[in-house]
Design brief:
7-stranded mixed sheet, Spore Coat Polysaccharide Biosynthesis Protein SpsA, Chain A, alpha/beta, single chain
């Protein structure tokens, strides 16, 4: 075990008392043993904190366990885990998902063989519903590839469930932490990572991802309640930040098109975020905004 790299498993807990035991036990069942466990409960209002304490005591687990006294949200929680991590590699587990037994072992092997230019290993995932019924693979029509996959990710040729990622912990020093300005952190982080690093595909599914139909996540409810306005706001921030890392003219243009499309959607929907995002872009010296987008908003305002 001493010659195998340390892997940090960061477990994020928030109000999933129905599923948490299976999630925690899946970490215990990993065939790869050189791991450190960091658990953060983000102020759950159910029995999750007590269940975690019981699991730690029952299994004599040595880990870091933090209970937030207020809800900080997923991005701040993930950043807290990253700052505490000692592993060469890091992966995250939400307590409604389940790791397959060889997940850590397979992904570490892929990244060790691939070399430092590969910052992430990803995979397909198996899926279940709230009651544990099999729903097949998550990525049913995706292309899977190694190397620089950003363009295929942007055009949705490649897509995957966020919990399958294993990261080289050093990537955060180059591409930055999870962005606390956005509600949904994964796209924001992935576009920066994929602009700088190659990624490796692992054929082992790695994770059983729970797709919730009856139970909706707090984040997705917030986005839905704002008629996707928050989604467009977040995409503008994320795509602008990614531009700093892009060298390809083709890929830069894809990002600019995405920024302008999101701003246009905010304008057409008379969103409260339109002027905020326009101000954000202009004060950051982004001057690629189509004139028709500004005029359409002014015309709507005059009416």
């Amino acid at each position: 075990m001493d010659c195998k790299p340390l892997v940090t498993i960061g477990i994020t807990s928030y109000n999933y008392e129905l599923f948490i035991e299976a999630a925690l036990n899946s970490v215990l069942d990993q065939t790869y043993k050189n791991i450190e466990i960091i658990i953060i409960d983000d102020y759950s209002q159910d029995s999750c904190p007590a269940l975690i304490n019981h699991w730690i005591e029952q299994n004599c687990i040595k880990c870091i366990y933090i209970q937030h006294q207020i809800n900080l949200g997923i991005t701040k929680t993930l950043n807290e885990i990253v700052n505490l991590a000692n592993g060469k590699y890091i992966t995250f587990l939400a307590t409604d998902d389940i790791m397959l037994p060889e997940r850590v072992e397979k992904q570490v092997a892929e990244l060790e063989d691939a070399g430092n230019e590969f910052g992430m290993c990803y995979a397909n995932a198996l899926t279940i519903d709230e009651e544990g019924n099999d729903m097949g693979y998550y990525s049913k029509n995706s292309v899977f590839d190694d190397g620089f996959i950003l363009e295929k990710f942007l055009t949705k040729e490649i897509y995957f469930a966020t919990p399958v990622m294993m990261l080289r912990t050093s990537v955060f020093s180059k591409v930055g932490m999870f962005d606390t300005r956005v509600l949904i952190e994964d796209y924001n982080f992935f576009v920066r990572l994929m602009a700088v690093y190659k990624v490796k595909y692992c054929t082992y599914p790695c994770v059983i991802y729970r797709q919730k139909i009856k139970i909706k996540s707090t984040i997705h409810e917030l986005v839905a309640s704002n008629n996707s306005e928050l989604f467009y706001r977040d995409r503008i921030i994320s795509n602008y930040e990614a531009l700093k890392f892009i060298t390809s003219k083709t890929v830069k243009q894809i990002f600019k098109n995405k920024i302008n499309k999101a701003l246009r959607n905010l304008a057409y929907n008379n969103s409260q975020y339109y002027y905020k995002m326009l101000f954000f872009l202009l004060t950051n010296f982004y001057f690629h905004i189509p004139v028709r987008t500004v005029f359409s908003k002014l015309k709507h305002h005059i009416k």
